[in-house]
Design brief:
Layout (H helix, E strand, L loop, with lengths): L4 H9 L2 H15 L4 E11 L28 H14 L3 E6 L6 H16 L3 E5 L7 H8 L3 E3 L6 H7 L5 H13 L3 E3 L2 E3 L5 H13 L6 E6 L16 H14 L4 E4 L8 H9 L4 E3 L12 H11 L2 E3 L14
The structure holds S-adenosylmethionine, 6-(5-methyl-2-OXO-imidazolidin-4-yl)-hexanoic acid and iron/sulfur cluster (SF4).
The site of iron/sulfur cluster has 9 residues, from loops.
Length: 323
């Protein structure tokens, strides 16, 4: 399994057809090639974040029109999770625009996690950097996954984010792992980085022992008012290559085709599934930006013969539209 930076760079350099063939082979060794895991996202605390991440609509430092809201009420979140479950989502991911949670904020999130878990869904949270003891509390409340992205390579991180660093991210990831929570960790492509930076991110992820169970690959959503709004983005073929290299280098991880799907034509998404992506965010909204309509995703799954995975690993049918 290629894990070193030169090996991963060599994968990127393969002819496209050879790369996709290898990715399909690896994918089929470990997964049902037609099953895709489906998560729904909810922003439970939107906007006003102290951090300066250059891509983010929720930083208080960027004028994006996203308002600073307070933490949602747990009961309201549980009701929305129930609706997501009825539509076919097996995992519910709660996101907060914090550098990290204060203890009193965490109490509210723990109530959400307990309630969503009681619905029989997998739970995921992304709350920023954790202080000692916080991961254990989340684990005890029933948190299955914690999302905390490395976002890019170690040497490119400082080009995009100045208020925290790579070591801070790795420190939280270690806390999550030690508390027995599964790790969801990936990054963003199309932030002006070069291929070697994308390879650097995948090498960092592949070097984690154990590897993250879930690896979201986000295509930058260019949000007006952020420093990256006029970025030239990424060539779609290079994006598919990134998915394929992640699949080969992280053979047992779920690779999530994450942000950016709203701007992707269906054939591009189909290529991403062929390259080994086997998870998506499902629901009309990501955190603050649009995601494809659920009906469109259902049609795409039908066209491709893809079915969503239930938490027990079996296939399930997405909600039938009311006549
Ligand atoms: N504040 C927490 C943190 O930074 O970990 C959690 C929320 S943060 C919005 C979660 C992730 O969303 C980021 O690490 C980044 O990968 C992704 N993200 C945020 N804005 C994005 C954008 N405009 N395009 C693509 N991905 C984005
Ligand atoms: C991840 O890697 N992508 C999701 C989730 N983890 C939290 C977030 C995508 C956010 C896209 C921009 C927005 O909607 O604000
Ligand atoms: Fe804050 Fe997270 Fe956005 Fe960075 S990515 S500004 S930490 S919400």
């Amino acid at each position: 399994m290629p894990t070193s930076l030169p090996e991963i760079e060599n994968l990127f350099d393969l002819p496209f057809n050879d790369l996709l063939f290898r990715a399909q082979q690896v994918h089929r060794q470990h997964f049902d090639p037609n099953a895709v895991q489906v998560s729904t996202l909810l922003s439970v605390k939107t906007g006003g974040c102290s951090e300066d991440c250059g891509y983010c609509s929720q930083s208080a430092r960027h004028k994006t029109g996203v308002e600073n809201e307070k933490l949602m009420d747990a009961q309201e979140v549980i009701t929305l999770a129930k609706a997501a479950k009825a539509k076919g989502a097996s995992r519910f991911c709660m996101g907060a625009a914090w550098r990290g949670p204060k203890d009193k904020d965490l109490a509210g999130v723990l109530a959400m996690v307990k309630g969503v878990k009681a619905l029989g869904m997998e739970t995921c949270a992304t709350l920023g950097m954790l202080k000692p003891g916080q991961a254990e509390l989340l684990s005890q409340a029933g948190l299955d996954y914690y999302n905390h992205n490395l976002d890019t390579s170690r040497d490119y991180y400082g080009e995009v984010i100045g208020t925290h660093n790579y070591e801070d991210r790795l420190d939280t990831l270690n806390k999550v792992r030690e508390a027995g929570i599964k790790v969801c960790c990936g990054g963003i492509v199309g932030m002006g980085e070069e291929r070697r930076h994308r390879a650097g991110l995948i090498a960092e992820l592949a070097a984690m022992d154990p590897a993250p169970e879930s690896v979201p690959i986000n295509m930058l959503v260019r949000v007006p008012g952020t420093p990256l709004e006029n970025n030239s983005g990424i060539d779609p073929i290079e994006f598919v290559r990134t998915i394929a290299v992640a699949r080969i280098s992280l053979p047992r991880s779920m690779v999530r085709l994450s942000a950016g799907r709203n701007e992707m034509p269906e054939p591009l998404q189909a290529l991403c599934f062929l390259a080994g992506a086997n998870s998506i965010f499902y629901g009309d909204k990501l955190l603050t930006t649009p995601n494809p309509e659920t009906d469109k995703d259902k049609q795409l799954f039908e066209k491709l013969g893809i079915y969503p995975l239930a938490p027990d690993g079996t296939g399930q049918v997405l909600e039938k539209k009311q006549a």
